[in-house]
C-alpha cells in the first residue's frame, strides 16, 4: 500500500512540475520547441549534423522584409512573409551556382533574384522535399509537371535544418520530406530527369562531374 501511495504521489508531483513548466513558457520558447519537435521527427538519426543543431535556436527569419527589393514586395503583395534566407540555387541544366533568396509566405515559396521572382511554388502543389543523410546543405524542392513550373528547385542552404523545418511546417508537408542516401533524382523539365550524387571527401564542394551528374561532396 505504501509503495502504491508513493508511486501515485510521484506521478502527481511530476504532473504538477510539467504543468508549471509549460505555463511558464514564453510564446517564443514554445514556438522554438514546436519547431524542434518537427525537426526531430524529420532528421533524428537520419542526417549528419542533427545532434549539433539541437542547441542552436531557429531564427524567425535570416533577412527582414524590408531587405527585399520593393518590386518583389509589390509582386507578392497580400501574402504574409514568414521567412527569408539567402541561398545558392543550382541551374537544372549545367548546374551553375547562382545567389538567390528563398522567401516563404503563408501560402507559397519564392525563389528571388534581386527584383525578379524566378520561381513560385504554391504549397498546395508541392510534391516533396529531399535532402541527403550527409552534412551538406542541399535541399531539393519537388514540383509538379506542368507548364507553370520549370522543374524541381535545387538549393544550398547554410541553415539546412532551419530551412527545411520552416518549409515543411508552413506547407504542412512534413510527411513528404525524404532524407536520401547516395543519390536522388530530380525533374529538369519537359519530362526529363537529372541525377544528384552525394559522397564524402576532404572538403565540401558541388560540381558537375564527367558523366553530367551534379556531385555534392
Automatic annotation (TrEMBL):
Pfam families linked to this entry: Myosin_TH1 (PF06017)
Taxonomy, superkingdom: Eukaryota
Residue ranges annotated for the TH1 domain, each copy included: 47-217
InterPro entries (alphabetical): Myosin_TH1
Molecular functions (GO terms): cytoskeletal motor activity
One Gene Ontology term, aspect cellular component: myosin complex
Protein name per UniProt: MYO1H protein
Gene coding for it: Myo1h
Amino acid at each position: 500500500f505504501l509503495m502504491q501511495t508513493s508511486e501515485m504521489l510521484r506521478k502527481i508531483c511530476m504532473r504538477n512540475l510539467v504543468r508549471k513548466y509549460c505555463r511558464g513558457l514564453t510564446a517564443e520558447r514554445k514556438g522554438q520547441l514546436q519547431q524542434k519537435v518537427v525537426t526531430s521527427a524529420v532528421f533524428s538519426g537520419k542526417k549528419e549534423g542533427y545532434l549539433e543543431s539541437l542547441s542552436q535556436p531557429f531564427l524567425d527569419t535570416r533577412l527582414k522584409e524590408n531587405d527585399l527589393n520593393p518590386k518583389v514586395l509589390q509582386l507578392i503583395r497580400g501574402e504574409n512573409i514568414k521567412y527569408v534566407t539567402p541561398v545558392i540555387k543550382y541551374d537544372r541544366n549545367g548546374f551553375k551556382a547562382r545567389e538567390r533568396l528563398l522567401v516563404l509566405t503563408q501560402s507559397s515559396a519564392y525563389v528571388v533574384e534581386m527584383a525578379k521572382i524566378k520561381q513560385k511554388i504554391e504549397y498546395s502543389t508541392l510534391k516533396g522535399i529531399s535532402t541527403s543523410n550527409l552534412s551538406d546543405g542541399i535541399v531539393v524542392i519537388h514540383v509538379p509537371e506542368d507548364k507553370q513550373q520549370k522543374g524541381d528547385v535545387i538549393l544550398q542552404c547554410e541553415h539546412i535544418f532551419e530551412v527545411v523545418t520552416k518549409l515543411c511546417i508552413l506547407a504542412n508537408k512534413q510527411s513528404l520530406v525524404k532524407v536520401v542516401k547516395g543519390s536522388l533524382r530530380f525533374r529538369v523539365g519537359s519530362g526529363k530527369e537529372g541525377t544528384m550524387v552525394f559522397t564524402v571527401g576532404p572538403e565540401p564542394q558541388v560540381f558537375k562531374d564527367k558523366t553530367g551528374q551534379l556531385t555534392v561532396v
